[in-house]
Amino acid sequence: MPSNRNAQLRYQIIDSCLRNRGRRWTWHDIITKVNDALKEDSPKSRGIRKVTFYEDLKDIEYRIYQLEIERIKEGKTVYLRYKDPKASINSRPLSDKEVGQIRDAIMVISRFKGLPQFEWIHEIVPILESKLGLIETEKEIISFESNLDYKGAKYIPILYNAIQNKKVLKLTYQSFRSSFPLEIEIHPQYLKQFSSRWFIMSFVDKWEDKPQINALDRIVEIEEAKTKYRTKIDFNWEDYFSDMIGVSRLDGKVEEVRVLISDEFEALYINTKPLHQSQKTLKKVEGGFETSIFVIPNIELEKLILSFGENVQIISPSSLKEKIKNRIEILNMKYSLSN
Fold first, then answer.
1. What's the pLDDT score for residue 62?
2. What is the C-alpha separation between 8 and 98, in angstroms, rounded?
3. Average pLDDT for residues 240-269, to the nearest whole number?
4. Domains of the chain, residue spans
5. What is the pTM of this model?
6. Is residue 140 exposed (0-12), middle (13-18) or buried (19+ Cβ within 10 Å)?
7. 5-82 belongs to which CATH class?
8. What confidence tens digit (pLDDT) does each residue in 118-157 have?
9. Which of 129, 109, 130, 131 is nearest to 120 (CA)?
10. Using CA atoms, how far apart are residues 213 and 134, in angstroms rounded to an integer?
11. Contact partners, residue 38, CB within 8 Å, separation at least 6
12. Backbone phi, then psi, for 220, in 5-degree steps?
């Protein structure tokens, strides 16, 4: 396997050129393509020279991937491509050595299971074992939730690199409320996933210090802007989202949201899967079980409460209780009219 991320990126670009038969590639063309990608990934990159390129070709040809490369000579010019049109470093199975290295890494990672800051290990280890074929089974025994049609996923690498390299971006963006796309300039800061969707948190100059939130699946196009990047060094995004459910942070304050759960089985479910990290221990009361969370009420909280149907109701605050009540009345009216 490539020894570092830089080498992996070079191999991927070279591989894409050697697979592309719609164009004839010289060594100079491929090096230019590689260096453009390296500079886009890291503006401080100096790129590679011919010596490094030919070492990479050796890795692809016989040291790592064992893929045959044709050298087609026309006059003094030599063009490069894979002999097999279907060849690719991405279609090559892991070698026994690579599988062994990954297994060793998983064993090291697994030692941290149980520690508070390493809860993610319980999810990542089965994913690695299953997706990389490190366990042999007669059939699939594990499934992972993903949105295969999520069109915003292609922007994740671009936004991630912009955050890492402090680049301002110009988005062509069309919100649900707009009938046409608008252009906005953002200083990207933080990527967050919620409910199978991704969101980019940014600052916008004209919005002063109020964060901007954009859904990746509403982005039409991204291009780099020439504006100087700015950031709030003391801004903590984990703290920003800790007092809310989802990503819609309103101007309201944190409130105690008291909840009554009338169904015992629903109460057991909510006890094992809390509504929010601030959830208090459930207590038995008249009419069921009561708990409370400390959050800024928002649309995601309303939808979460409504998802439990008649088994969960808001006790307080009255403003949130009234919003839920109005939603139910409108829904009831619509169902009544449909008969």
1. 87
2. 15
3. 89
4. 5-82, 152-242, 255-337
5. 0.58
6. exposed
7. mainly alpha
8. 666 666 666 666 666 666 555 555 555 666 567 787 888 8
9. 109
10. 39
11. 6, 9, 10, 45, 47, 48
12. -95, -40
